[in-house]
Amino acid sequence: MATIFRELSYRYQWLYDTIAKISALAVGGEAKFRRLAIQNLTISSDSKVLDLCCGSGQATSVLVEYSHHVTGLDASPLSLQRAQKNVPQAKYIQGFAEAIPLPDGEFDLVHTSAALHEMEPQQLQEILNEVYRILKPGGIFTLVDFHSPMSLWMKPGIAVFFWLFETHTAWQFLATDLSALLTQRGFEIRQKTLYAGGSLQVIQARKGEIIENR
Ligand SMILES: C[S@@+](CC[C@H](N)C(=O)[O-])C[C@H]1O[C@@H](n2cnc3c(N)ncnc32)[C@H](O)[C@@H]1O
Q1: In what helix (H) or strand (E) does residue 63 lie, and over which residues does it extend?
Q2: Which domains are seen in the chain, by residue range?
Q3: How far does residue 103's CA lie from ligand 1's centre (Å)?
Q4: Counting Cβ atoms within 10 Å, is residue 196 exposed (0-12), middle (13-18) or buried (19+)?
Q5: Helix, strand, or coil (residue 185)
Q6: What is the separation, in whole angstroms, between the first and last Cα of the chain?
Q7: Which of 36, 38, 91, 196 could make an SS bond with 26 (beta carbons 3.0 to 4.6 A apart)?
Q8: Whose CA is nearest to atom 17 of ligand 1?
Q9: Does the predicted model carry a pTM greater than 0.90?
Q10: Residue 186: CB atoms within 10 Å
Q11: How far apart (Å, rounded) are the C-alpha atoms in residues 171 and 186?
Q12: What is the pLDDT of residues 194-204, one digit of tens each?
């Protein structure tokens, strides 16, 4: 159960962006937050990049600084309209992350931020399958999302935030071992880092190269 603030934050972009800015203070501000997942990665202007569940283009705006081939995908036409206006350098596709309307082996990098906690467990599994499918062999999946806090002082903060803005899926997500799911799907975890008292996880996972048996 969420409060009316969830709907309002999706309706009014300024409210969503203000909440994101305030939340990102826990990791040193939004500019830093938006770069956490891609630090240490080599992204060239030719890299093909997908911002999965791109919303209004909050992470897309950073990805286009690196690559000239960024695509944003989201299920919401309103978010995509806003993203197109906010970050016109990217191209956009409407679709579901669990049935991505794009070909196999297309992307060097798939990024998703603050979205996987909105998915039901079955959907999450399907999304990992889809990300694996559309990545090139050796391609990288980066993600930023909630994690069950390690510090006692973060637990009440997360509980209040979830009560205001999130639904049951966010609580289910806290109990999910995302690294294990990624590994089961065939990804190799390159890096997993926790921030903000453990309440935020940043993962870089790699799709293994396909080795042909001769
Ligand atoms: C909390 S917003 C995150 C937006 C942005 N990535 C960010 O970092 O601020 C979650 C986004 O996921 C999108 N979304 C939710 N379920 C989806 C699905 N099954 N397929 C594609 N997009 C989805 C929503 O429309 C929304 O724009």
Answers
A1: helix 60-63
A2: 2-207 (3.40.50.150)
A3: 21
A4: buried
A5: helix
A6: 54
A7: 196
A8: 75
A9: yes
A10: 13
A11: 25
A12: 999 999 999 99
